[in-house]
Specification:
Layout: H1 12-25, E1 31-32, H2 41-51, E2 54-59, H3 61-66, H4 73-87, H5 92-95, H6 103-119, H7 126-134, E3 139-143, H8 149-152, E4 160-162, E5 165-172, E6 180-182, H9 184-194, E7 197-198, E8 204-205, E9 231-235, H10 245-260, E10 266-271, H11 282-291, E11 296-301, E12 307-308, E13 315-319, H12 322-331
Helix pairs in contact: 1-10, 1-11, 6-9, 7-12
Length: 333
């Protein structure tokens, strides 16, 4: 049980990052795609999921992309075609950095962005299928994703650690304020102010005439109720990111889970993690597999499934669409 002042809790985030970086610094030899016939990888992974004492899931952007949470293409065109015509942006990610002419326009963009990527379900049931695979196991999930998909799919929130923030949270621009604030009510009002309407399922969509505004009223600009300062997103981009009490308790829960399973048969299941943030999941998973002879490392990635030679005999590397891999595993249960 984790209790006491959260600032005194163990920090699994920094603990694992530091160990992972040190492990990579000492690495010798090349990377490998694992051993054994590629066709047997799925059967090996299925067996590991069934027999492991514990499973630690590490998820990156590739998992949500596989679930259909793309920032470009059809989803972008559906919700941001007017922004594209007006400002030339081509995807939701780059649109978040565009210097819009006013705060009212900028926050209109972010209201849509938050709604689409936080409060809507992904098009494909990848997270639900992953949950079906591990729900009866002793599991914990750490992710750099900020879309809340794990919890929406049924994962226990006490077994989740969102390291980089949450689209569903605001933080004050006052650096002394270390709290976060739910934004769902504000997002609803900002979507309505732009002209979006609820359909029979309670979901926002453009009105029949297709006309929506690209700005919100000045009085709707989000302000912190405690200090009156402007709000910003609770997303890690620099050292102003607020690691609030919930963040610290999740970090401590991660640390506690790892310590309780030291020396046991642990499956470190990495899904969709690229090289943008390898220090958070990939490097620590390599290090923890290396130090525990009973541990197994599995890497599911569209095109970058590999591991250090030192752990290749206890690694399962599978390249391809993570949605297809997880679906096949779920159907074979």
């Amino acid at each position: 049980m984790i209790s006491g002042n959260y600032t005194d809790l163990p920090n699994g985030y920094l603990e694992t990052i530091n160990k992972g970086i040190e492990y990579v610094r000492r690495l010798r030899g090349s990377m490998t795609s694992g051993i054994g016939p590629r066709g047997e990888a799925a059967a090996r992974l299925k067996n590991e999921i069934e027999t492991a004492d514990a499973i630690v899931i590490g998820a990156g952007a590739g998992l949500s992309t596989a679930a259909g949470f793309r920032y470009d293409g059809e989803r972008f065109d559906k919700w941001f075609s007017d922004f594209s015509r007006a400002y030339g942006i081509r995807d939701m990610y780059s649109g978040g950095f565009y210097p819009y002419p006013s705060k009212e326009i900028s926050w209109a963009f972010f209201a849509r962005n938050i709604y689409v990527n936080r409060y809507l379900d992904p098009p494909k049931p990848v997270y639900e299928e992953l949950y079906a695979l591990v729900k009866d196991k002793d599991y914990f999930a750490i992710t750099t994703n900020v879309d809340h998909c794990f919890q929406k799919a049924g994962f226990d929130k006490t077994r989740l650690f969102y390291t980089q923030g949450d689209y569903g949270l605001f933080q004050s621009t006052d650096p002394a304020n270390r709290k976060t604030y739910d934004n769902e009510e504000w997002v609803d009002r900002a979507m309505e102010a732009q002209g979006f309407v609820r359909n029979e399922k309670g979901l926002f969509e453009a009105p029949e005439n297709g006309s929506v505004k690209m700005e919100i009223p000045t009085e709707l600009l989000p302000k912190c109720p405690d200090d009156g300062r402007d709000f910003t997103m609770n997303l890690r981009s620099d050292d102003s990111f607020v690691e609030d009490e919930g963040w610290h308790r999740a970090s401590a829960a991660y640390s506690d889970f790892l310590k309780r399973h030291q020396g046991l048969h642990v499956l470190f299941l990495e899904i969709g993690v690229g090289m943008n943030t390898p220090v958070i999941v990939k490097y620590p998973f390599w290090q923890m597999t290396s130090e525990n002879p009973k541990a197994v490392y599995a890497c599911l990635n569209f095109s970058e499934a590999y591991c250090p030679q030192q752990i290749e005999k206890r690694s399962i590397c599978m390249e391809g669409d993570c949605a297809d891999i997880i679906s096949r595993l779920a159907q074979s249960r």
